[in-house]
Every structure is written in structure tokens, then in C-alpha cells.
Amino acid sequence: MSDHSGSELDTVYELLSSSRCRHLMYSFLDGDAASVVELTQQVAEWEQGVETEPIAMSLHHQQLPRLADHGMVEVEYGEKEDTVRATAGFERVQEVVAQVSAVEEEDGGASSPREFFDGDEAVIGHGEEITAESNLESGGGR
């Protein structure tokens, strides 16, 4: 951790203080890219009971721009799907993010981000694949 400047650590701790930003950062510990839909579903699973539409709005208008402004991610807007990629800025603080994730997992605060992503498919809890159809069938929220 001695390789980090004071302002870089201030920034990462500020970002980690927001649960949604923190969970977004956790999702990049095992992979460098995810779709906004995957990230929305992941946050909805962690927050249990929160509808996906307000989460998607929050990610688009608050958390993702905030992370991008601080050089942690880049958002690539596509015709069919938007993709979020971790940047070199995130790689520099990845160790700190991993340590915070481990502490939160030990405390039982949130589901492990590693439980959510299994290879290229988004899964919940016990390996159930998330699709638009399954999301609608389960009530359209979580």
C-alpha cells in the first residue's frame, strides 16, 4: 500500500464509503468488464428487495460517472448494451478494494461478488442464471 499517494487513498476510501460504488468496485476484482445490466442485477441481489429500475438509474447517473470521473472505470456505450471496464486506475487500488471486500464478507455484510459472476454468465446465489425473462418472472425487481 505504500505505492499509493495520499490523495489516491483518499479517493478510493471515499468511493468505498458508498455501498453501491463499493459493490461496483468489488465486481471488478475477478474480471475487468461487465455490462450495465449485469452490474444492475448484481447490485439488486446485494441490496435484496430493491427494484432494478431505480438501481439502473442510479448507476447511470451517479455511481458510474463518479467512478469514471475518478479514473476507476470507463463506460463504453453500445447500440444494444453498455459495457463498463476497469481501468489502470482501478488496478492501482485493486488490493485495497480486495481487502475491504474480504472484511465485508467476513462480517457477513454482503454476498461475495465472486458468488455472483460465474465465468461469463451472471448468476445469483446458488448458480441460477439471470436472464431478462427470469427477472420478469420473479416479479421484475430483484
Structural overview:
The structure is a single chain. This protein is α+β, with helices and mostly antiparallel strands and 142 residues long. The protein is built from 7 helices and 6 strands. The strands form 2 sheets. It has a 3-stranded antiparallel β-sheet with strand order 1-3-2. A 3-stranded antiparallel β-sheet has the order 4-5-6. Strand 4 (117-118) and strand 5 form a beta hairpin. The radius of gyration is 15 Å and the shape is globular. Mean pLDDT is 79; it is low at 110-142.
Shape: globular
Structural class, from helix and strand content? alpha+beta
Biggest sheet character? 3 strands, antiparallel
Helix content: 55-70%
**Helix and strand succession?**
HHEHHEEHHEEEH
Q: How many DSSP E strands?
A: 6
- Unreliable stretches covering 5 or more consecutive residues: 110-142
